[in-house]
Amino acid sequence: MVKNFLKDKRLKTPHTYALLLCIIIFASILTYLIPAGTFSREKKDGQTLVIPGSYEQVQQHGVSFFDIFRAIPEGLISGGEIVFYIFLVGGAFGIVHKTGAFENGVNKAMQSLGAYKVLMIPLTMTIFSILGFSIGLAEETIIFVPIGIIIARTLGYDALTGAAMVILGAASGFIGGMLNPFTVGVAQTVAELPMFSGWGLRSIIYVFILIAAISTVMLYARKVKRDKSKSYVYELEQIEAKSETQLTRARFTKRQAIGLGLIVLAIILNVYGIFTFGWSFNEMSANFIFAGILAGVIGGLGINGTFDAMIEGMKDILFGAMIVGFAKGIIVILENGEVIDSIVYGMTTLLAGVPSSLVIIAMFILQFMLNFFIPSGSGQALTTMPLMVPISDLLNINRQITVLAFQYGDAISNVLFPTSAILMGALAVGKITYTQWLKFAWKVILLWVIICCIGMSVALIVGY
Are 198 and 463 in contact (CB under 8 A)? Predict the structure, then answer.
C-alpha cells in the first residue's frame, strides 16, 4: 500500500501555477545572488534600445518575502489588457458554441461534400489552423475533439485521427501565428514592433507547417482505413465500436450561420483596425464582446442565456488567462531587484562572438524547453521577451527574428509536453493515452522543428 502511494506521488506532475510560483521564488533569491546593474537606454524610431557598453552595477537591494506574492497581482495589472482580452475572446467563443453553430456547421459541411468526405480532413484542419493563427485557438480545442473523433469514425478512421485533426490543425495555425494576438501580438508588443508586422514570411512558413500536418494525418488515416489493426488506439476502437456515436443531424440554421459570420467579421475587422488605425487589445476585445453578444441574441439564446454562455466560455479560458499574471510576476521580481539587465549582460558576454545563426537556434531551443514550465504563449512571451530583446539588440540580431524564435519554440512544444493542460485535456476527452499520442505525433513535431529552423535561417539571410 505504501509502495503504491509513493508510486502515485512520483507520477504526479506539479501544477503549472505551482511551477511558476517556484520560479518567482527562485527569481527573488537571484535578486540577492546576482549583482544589481542597469543598462542605459534610448528611444529610437519608437523602440527603446539598450546602449551597448553602458552597463554598470548599482546598489544591491533584494526583494522582500511579501514582494514574492505582490508580484502576482502586479503582473496581472501590468498584463491587464492581455488578461481581459483572453477572457473576452473565450466568452465570445462560448456564446457561439452554445448556439450549436459549430456542430451543425460540421454536419452541413459533411452533407455538402457527399462522396468526397475524405476532404473533411484537410478542410477541418485548415479551418482550425485559421482559428489558430487568427484568434489563437488553444483551450477551446478541447471542446471540439469529440466532434473531430465522430467525424473520423464516420469516415472509417479512428479516434486518434479525429483528435489529431483538431489538435494539429489548431497547432499549425498557432505555429504560423500571423495574426495570433496571444503569441506574436504579445511578443511584438514587448519588442516594440508593429503588431503582426512581418506576416509575409510567417505566412509562407505556415503553409509548409500546415501541409506537413495534413499529410501526416491523412497518411495515418489511410493506413488505419486499410487495416484497423494498424491503429495506435486499436483496443479503444474495439471497445467504442459497441457504442458507436454518430453526429446529431440537426439543421444548420441561418441564425447559426450569422453567428459564425459575426465572429469571422470581428476577426477581419480587428486585423483591418490593427493595420489601419493601430488598434491594440482594448479595441479587439470590444469587437469580440459586440460580436459575441449579437451572435447569442440572434442565435436564440436570449439576453440571460447569452451572458450565461459568455461566463461558461470565460471559465474554460481561466487557466490561460491567469498564467499571464504569474508569468509576468517573474519579470516584476527581476525588474524590482534590478538584476534583469545583469542577466542580459552576462548572457550577451557569453554569446559574444557566436554566429547569429547559432544564437537564434539557441534561443529557439531555450523557448522550446521553457514551455515545459510555462505552457502559455502569452505568459512565456511576457517572461522571456524582456530578456531576449536586449540580447538580440546587443548582438545585432533583428527583433523580428527573436520573435520568430519565441513563436516557434513555444508553439511546437505545445503538442509535445505533458505539462500542457490543453494537450492533456484534449487527449483525455478522446480517451487517448499520452504514449499513444507521442507514437503518432513525434514525426510531425520533428518535421515542424526542421521547417521552422530553415525558416529562421532564411529570415536571418534575407535580413527579415
Answer: no
- Of the candidates 416, 305, 320, the residue with the CA atom closest to the CA atom of residue 368: 416
Cell of 88: 473576452
- Average pLDDT of the segment spanning 149-171: 90
SS3 per residue for the chain:
CHHHHHHHHHHCCCCHHHHHHHHHHHHHHHHHHCCCEECCEEEECCEEEECCCCCEECCCCCCCHHHHHHHHHHHHHHCHHHHHHHHHHHHHHHHHHHCCHHHHHHHHHHHHHHHHHHHHHHHHHHHHHHHHHHCCCCCCHHHHHHHHHHHHHHCCCCHHHHHHHHHHHHHHHHHHCCCCHHHHHHHHHHCCCCCCCCHHHHHHHHHHHHHHHHHHHHHHHHHHHHCHHHCCCHHHHHHHHHHCCCCCCCCCCHHHHHHHHHHHHHHHHHHHHHHHHCCCHHHHHHHHHHHHHHHHHHCCCHHHHHHHHHHHHHHHHHHHHHHHHHHHHHHHHHHHCCCHHHHHHHHHHHHCCCCHHHHHHHHHHHHHHHCCCCCCHHHHHHHHHHHHHHHHHHCCCCHHHHHHHHHHHHHHHCCCCCCCHHHHHHHHHCCCCHHHHHHHHHHHHHHHHHHHHHHHHHHHHHCC
C-alpha cell belonging to residue 316: 474554460
- If we measure between CA atoms, which residue out of 65, 73, 75 comes closest to residue 31? 65
Q: Do residues 329 and 338 lie in contact, with contact meaning Cβ atoms separated by under 8 Å? A: no
Residue 93 phi, psi dihedral angles, 5° rounding:
-65, -40
- pTM > 0.70: yes or no: yes
pLDDT in tens, 384-440: 888 888 888 888 899 999 999 999 999 999 899 876 767 877 888 788 888 899 999
Average pLDDT, the chain: 85
CA distance from start to end of the chain: 60
C-alpha dihedral (291, 293, 297, 298), degrees to nearest 10 = 10
pLDDT in tens, 162-198: 999 999 999 999 999 998 888 898 899 989 999 889 9
> What CA–CA distance (Å, rounded) separates 391 from 190?
14
Task: Give CA separation, 104 vs 97, 100, 167, 197, in Å.
Answer: 10, 6, 20, 36
Phi-psi region of 338 (alpha: psi -120 to 50; beta: other; left: phi over 0): left
**Residue from 115, 200, 159 nearest 436 by CA:** 159
